[in-house]
Amino acid sequence: STIIPFVLADTVCAILLYITAHIYVRHSEGTNVEAKPGVGRTDAAEAPREPSSIPSICALTYLLNPYTIMACVGASWSSFEACAVLLALCGAASRNPPLAAFGVAAAAYLSLFPVLLAVPVAIALCNGLDREPRPQDSKPAGFRRVRRWAVLAVFSINVMLWLTFLHLLSNVALRGFEAPQAWISEVYIFLLTVPDLIPNIGLYWYLFIELFDFFRPLFLAAFLSQPLIALAPLCIRLYHRPLFVAVVVVMLVAIFKPYPSVADIALYLSLLPMFAQQLARMRLGVLAVTGFVASSVLGPVFWYLWIITGVANSNFYYATTLVLAVAQAVLLIDVLSATIKFDHKSTSSETRKGHKASQ
Question: Is the Cβ–Cβ distance between 242 and 121 less than 8 Å?
């Protein structure tokens, strides 16, 4: 009975995944229909699966993922964080600013780092989904500009209102305790200072155990700032793919969180099938899968040998966490590389077709 809330949270996640993928696939099909003849046909032919099956694949990938099952059985609150993140992505896909704002606020309230999703979600709300078709619009450009600013204002105000409401609700719930405001430092400051170095699947614990205290702030800032540093280049280079940028941000947060969970990995693995067409050119998938499998199998073994039997040491277990981090990094690089190649080929095809038409 203790895992029932987590089962329900995972079920809601699967439903939100299906809805988000359905909206995105329907949008992509509309883009392909309105595209000029000959543009993108090769790319569409290279898609590994029929678009109509992608929403079901996304939902089943999440529900049947061993990482999801492990997090559910372990009663990890990451399931609720994943639910909030998917709510934000669903709101962005449906261009619903209040829904997207609630998702971003709830995710940031639970784990702080998903606040970075506010940028790609805002871009999706203002400019539309990836490669959105632009039919002939009689409205002037000034009207569209005003509309974008209005959507951005509604989204920002809703995020602030929801964050304020959630924090006030927490203060009211903890009013009977001696220090009702202490939860802020125990949740958010705790994530930024990383005082607890209990072994986990992240990169921080072993490094900060071995590190001199003098260098701790430097390395802490370097690790925590990686998703933030990458956010601006991603939004500039892939401004036309805001939903994809949001998924990449989820991947970066999963890699560089101080206290990650396997549920974080399951979340972005279930989102990637949405972009099957542009990810058909991935080349390092086998290497990434090998890393995931090796770390998943050897991690519990080395943990048992180190903690239970005492015949191994922390180096064995930390090696598996490094393998997991490398596998995630390889997958991230491969995903970005495949998307950039896809965009480059599409742009080149359009340019050549334009030159032929002009001649």
Answer: yes
Helices (H) and strands (E) in the chain, counts: 17, 0
Give yes or no for a contact between 63 and 10, defined as CB atoms under 8 angstroms apart: yes
Domain that holds residue 88: 1-132+144-193
| CB half-sphere exposure, 143, CA atoms < 13 A | 4
- Note whether 85 and 140 are within 8 A (CB): no
User: Is 24 among the domain residues?
Assistant: yes
One-letter identity of residue 138: S
pLDDT, tens digit, for every residue of 321-341?
999 999 999 999 999 999 998
- What CA dihedral angle connects 191, 197, 198 and 202, to 10 degrees? 70
**Residue 213 and residue 220 in contact, taking contact as beta carbons nearer than 8 Å:** no
Both tokens of 104, joined, read 């971003």
Residue 256, Cα to own-chain centre: how many angstroms?
12
2 located within any domain:
yes
What does the pLDDT look like over 29-50, one tens digit per residue? Answer: 765 545 444 444 444 444 444 5
State the total domains in the chain: 1
Is 244 within the bounds of a domain?
no
Question: What single-letter DSSP state applies at residue 96?
Answer: -
Whose CA is closest to 348, among 47, 45, 135, 40? Answer: 40
Cα distances (angstroms) measured from residue 171 to each of 93, 115, 176, 179, 231: 33, 21, 9, 10, 32
What is the C-alpha to C-alpha distance for residues 27 and 36, in angstroms, rounded to an integer?
A: 16
What's the pLDDT at 285?
87
| Rounded CA separation 92/155 (Å) | 10
Residue 292 CA to residue 284 CA, distance in Å, equals 13
Closest to 197 (Cα-Cα) out of 184, 187, 206: 206
Helix H or strand E encompassing 57: helix 54-63
Rounded Cα distance, 110 and 114, in Å: 9
In this predicted structure, what is the pLDDT of residue 44? 45
